[in-house]
Amino acid sequence: MKVTSASQLSHLLQESRKEQGLSQSNTAQKVGIRQDTVSKFENAPEGTRLDTLFKLLAALDLELEVRPRGEQASSDTEQWKEEW
């Protein structure tokens, strides 16, 4: 999914958390942060520290991919084929 704002990112992570059946408390416990930190990210993500974002991504088994604008995201399979 293309994300262009902090609020879009927080919404995406919140949806992922709910799809996995995790509460804010469960998510926080997985990476050693507080439940209110998860809540603050989901409701007002603009001031979130980068290390907190990466902890939340880890708790939800997600990763962040950065690429130039306009460039299509490539799948791992496509990258593997290019290497051969």
Automatic annotation (TrEMBL):
Ranges annotated as biased composition (Polar residues): 1-13
UniProt GO MF annotations: DNA binding
InterPro entries assigned: Cro/C1-type_HTH, Lambda_DNA-bd_dom_sf
Region (Disordered): 1-35
Entry-linked Pfam families: HTH_3
HTH cro/C1-type domain location: 13-67
Name of protein: Transcriptional regulator
